[in-house]
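From the shared-data thread, chain only:
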Amino acid sequence: MNSRERLLRTLAFQPTDRIPLVEWPVRKATMREWTRQGYPTDVSQPVFLNLDPFYLNVPINMGLYPAFEEKVLSQDKDYKIWQDQLGAIRKDFAREDNPGFVTRTWLKFPVEDRTGFLAIKQRYESAADGRYPENWPARAAMLDLAPVASHLSIPFLFWTARDWMGFENLCLAFYDQPELVDEMFWFLTDFCIQTLARGIGQLQIDMVELKEDMAFKLAPMISPELFRRFMLPHYARLIAYLKGHGVRFVYVDCDGYPGGLIPLWLEAGVDGVSPCEIAAGNDMLRLGQAYPGLVLFGGIDKRVLAQNEQAIYDEVMGKVPQLLERGGYVPHIDHAIPFDVPLRLYLYYRRLITAIAYGEPVPSPRS
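Structure, as tokens:
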């Protein structure tokens, strides 16, 4: 069974030869620390960590294009004020000590009202040359032949509108500018469908990720009532289009605790959720019981990896075997691996998951 077959059968709650062995990408600051601890820099992560290829990205640009010019507006020894590629004005540290783990401060966003929205719409032309690579037919054919699942990432409604307006401004706009929110969400969904129309018939897209990140600790950032009013019709419309064109699996990328949004996602046709952050209040076993048809990704508490082997053993063995028996589960860390996680403890975690996958004796924790 190849990687594509194994993953797609897992997502369909079907038997496989073993679970997929995949992981959240390792960020620069973490890899910096691991290199100091002996990680061999001349060996790729999949080889060193005994990982399967997770998926191959479908090279269709579904975001803002062209990007804004990045430019520094002012800087001193501690901070810089600059414009990022999304057009936001930010105040950040002048020096980035831990790449991949950055604290950001936003000062201004490109969309404050309908005038700003009409301006940024110009960067969402479906027919723009940069949406597809020049060798698109060859790339599409390669993806169809690959033994690895094909995956398309779409920055969708909450994610994109937050990039345009900022989190607080968007939350206020649901009440103060509802007509503008409606117009933005209709436009974004139309844009997605029109952009995909050019190429979706030329290959099999196995997985689509709707990037949203609309939850934080213990609660979503938008109420179920507002989601139903503003977002559910567009979810249903896009997902119906995707599945009507052969997409097998649609999931929502949402950090934090989505809570009452999950039933609405399912109503719209969503199949799964990632990465199921434990620190935010997600309980994997309860999620699996409450939503027996929901595919779950992740759910291994990243904080535990910095503790000791016993804590890692308890975390993995307390949930992974039960979730695998339920089905529809792909285990991996519940977000970026922190840079305080020792390489030796991370490797113990990987040995546990690999042993479970192959039905081998699970290595006992050392004191």
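The chain has two domains: 3-64+110-358, 69-109.
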